[in-house]
Amino acid sequence: AHAADLGMMFYTGKQFPKQYHNAIFSAQHGSWNAVKPRGARVMVTYLDNKGNAVKHEPFAEGWMTEMGTYLGRPVDVQQYFDGSILVSDDKAGVIYRISYEG
Prior knowledge:
Elements: E1 5-10, E2 24-28, E3 41-47, E4 53-60, E5 74-79, E6 85-89, E7 94-98
């Protein structure tokens, strides 16, 4: 699939809905050698009560245009003290903070 999961973390915060508790968040840097570029997103993998992966889907996207041009490349994800998620981007040289308001 030509997208590498780089930074990963288990979400233990309380800011996001319960479905995200103990899920794995991962930063996909993206491909450089694929016919159709992939990645440049944050993925979430949901686990069952035994720790088995049961579902994997995009959580945050928008770092790549429909034409495959990278606007950014997520490298790592970390949980901030308030339960929000920090995403580092080595192309744009920034850190994004994703929070939930429900």
